[in-house]
Write a structure and sequence with these properties.
The protein has about 240 residues and is α/β, with parallel strands linked by helices. The chain has one domain: Metallo-dependent phosphatases (Purple Acid Phosphatase, chain A, domain 2, 4-Layer Sandwich), CATH 3.60.21. It contains seven helices and eleven strands. The strands form two sheets. A six-stranded mixed β-sheet has the order 4-3-2-1-10-11, with helices on one face. The longest helix is centred in the middle third of the chain and has 20 residues. The structure holds ligand LP5 and manganese (II) ion. The site of manganese (II) ion (MN) has 9 residues, from loops.
Length: about 240
């Protein structure tokens, strides 16, 4: 049985196609997986686990994930740049195990480094400054102490600002930096890296210190399920 890896679904109530595709995926293909790995940006944005008490959409997704885990398929979640405020309460309710970024695992015996991918985009210095600030415990506790409606309004405003800023950035700046990729592979002992975030699905080969390495970039979800299956024969991209 292969392991399945997904990322960048950007789920939110207005994205009905993708939400439907994800619920079908959890009740269908994912049930035959050895394990499911979600590598960040499951949600369009996440304003804190306390929203689960009142947010029907988020708690519906949590219930569906819990159903998969109850069926016997372990689920793992790494947060992304949109949903880095997912925390232990979400993990408890869904049954998913939270993974830190990066995490090294073995997939069918192959050491494989899992990342969301945003930290590899080191040329995007404006984003890296935002990342450092928004991941600091001081900033997060300040944000989480605000009322939920205010947090939603701030998240929407940052989403708009992010889209505006991206329109003015060169495409290359928003891709991974090759040296950052080489460093990550080197630090974690090669030979395979799987990440999302850039929405540029592909399989790349990198030679790092004379070692042949592969890097898989997961696709973002537009209107249907898209995932990577990794088994004894290697990895292959699949779609629903
Ligand atoms: O997400 P994507 O792929 O569209 O774009 C990312 C980078 N943008 C972001 C921002 C998120 O989209 C929006 C955040 C939602 C989080 C909600 C929960 C918490 C609320 C947070 C409120 C602060 O990650 C984008 C990259 C792109 O990937 C490609 O890698 O370019 O980066 C930006 O657009 C960021 C701007 O370049 C810099 C923003 C400057 C803000 C300055 C700091 C202000 C202080 C904020 C306090 C934390
Ligand atoms: Mn992302």
């Amino acid at each position: 049985m292969p392991d399945l890896l997904i990322s960048d679904l950007h789920l939110c109530p207005s994205r009905r196609d993708v939400t439907g595709a994800f619920l079908d995926f959890l009740e269908g293909r994912a049930r035959q997986a050895r394990a499911l790995y979600i590598l960040g940006d499951l949600f369009e944005y996440w304003v804190g686990d306390d929203c689960l008490e009142s947010d029907a959409f988020g708690s519906g997704i949590v219930r569906a994930l819990a159903g998969l885990v109850r069926s016997g398929v372990p689920g793992y979640l790494m947060v992304g740049n949109r949903d880095f405020l997912i925390g232990p309460a979400f993990a408890r309710a869904s049954g998913l195990t939270l993974l830190s970024d990066p995490t090294l695992i073995e997939l069918s015996g192959v050491p494989t480094l899992l990342m969301h991918g945003d930290s590899l985009c080191s040329d995007d210095t404006a984003y890296q400054a935002f990342r450092a600030l928004s991941r600091s415990p001081e900033w997060q506790s300040g944000f989480l102490s605000r009322p939920l409606t205010e947090r939603h309004a701030m998240a929407e405003a940052y989403r708009r600002q992010s889209e505006e800023e991206k329109a003015g950035k060169a495409s290359a700046i928003m891709d991974v930096n090759p040296e950052a990729v080489a460093q990550a592979l080197r630090r974690h002992g090669y030979p395979r890296l799987i990440h999302g975030h850039t929405h540029r699905p592909a399989r790349h080969e990198h030679e790092v210190d004379g070692r042949c390495c592969e890097r898989w970039v997961l696709p973002d979800w537009k209107d249907r399920a898209v995932w990577l299956e990794c088994g004894a024969e290697g990895c292959v991209k699949e779609a629903g």
